[in-house]
Sequence to fold (437 residues):
Amino acid sequence: MTDLDQLSELARSLARALGAEVTSPWFYLQIGLILAGAGIAFGIGAVVRARVELTSFAMGWPAPLRLFIRVLVRSAPTAAFALLMIVARGVMLASTWPSRSYLLEVSAKLAAAWLLIRLVTSVIRNEFLVRVVSFAAWLVAALSIIGQLDPALDALDSYAIVLGGLRLTPLLLIKLVVLLAVALWLTNILSRFIEARITQSRDLTPSVQVLLIKMLRLGLMVLAVVIVLGAVGINLSALAIFSGAVGVGIGFGLQKIVANFISGVILLADKSVKPGDLVTIGDSSGKVSAMNTRYISVAAGDGREFLIPNEDLITQKVVNWTYTDKNTLVKVAFTTNYDADPRLVCRLAIEAAEASPRATKGKKPNCIITEFAEAGMKFTLTFWIPDPDGMDQIKSDVMLSLWDAFKHDDIRVPYPVREIRIRGGTVPAGAAVKVPQ
Fold:
């Protein structure tokens, strides 16, 4: 007998069973009891929701129990309907044949299954994922309750596409997706647990911690995929046909992604850039806040974050202000006029740097005269700070202190002056007009 004949025979048998059921008066009695139970359950749910304040209900209870009770309160209509159907089923069993209360039994089991699914999926935070999991689980439960799960599975397994030595069926794909989702979810939980233990270890540097975490996540994901493929009956050797296509895809479309991934592993291994380092890459400067598989995040300090590909850190010039030592030399350049005493200027500059609370006390500031320029004498003040964080603010504070000292000692900072001589005009010969720039 062909598949089409089997389907036709199944449809005729279902039609005969449904016709026999519909013509029975017990069918309508069960339908009436189901509708009445649904109405009563809806009323009970409205009363429970009106009397129970979910935001403060069971506030002092343990978190798992509090979550369980709140989900149960939200699902009060379903719980009440299942209880009413169980009671009605018991009454019908005591008074008549079991076959005359079959719909009540199915309704009670479906409601109980939905209530159990709601309680189990309450731990999932994603609403869309909750809906997908709830619908799929309830569909499987419904088919099992009405005794049609095995025929449905056989039907899904009857259609197949053979690729090399791999037989792909809808049932196989569904199993693969479900098991893979569960395995990756468990892998995520396990990786987070181990990640928390690694980050709490004081014996590991930040770069080693990030490297261990990334390698752990990658290893757990690969292990989960291998286990799932073996669980659904897929032989890994059957996937060899796809290795060439994957290699071509990596060579053409994914080469940048692979390069960034390898570059990230190299950066974590050689510790040239670590989380917390202050770096300058091209025109971007800031503190490394995170190192990911494809890029690093550099916080600029003004609300911006630069996402720089890992490959750029390998191929471009990178200034790491905290690579081996966080002590940073700050340079402040300024100019005074020729009327000032250069020795006094240097002394005032050194005192202004020493007065800064961020200046390193063990290293004395220094001030030198660098040039006798056209506009005045040029000086460079240098002093050390323990770390480069907030270097621009420190320079600003020292320059403001230096400005106050110059005002106190009548030391002027020169500015450009231009002389314009006009001949043959209304301006008298030899007069000069000075225009400050």
User: Anything to note?
Assistant: Residues 7-157 form one domain. The longest helix spans residues 170-199. The mean pLDDT is 78. Residues 31 and 198 are 59 Å apart (CA to CA).
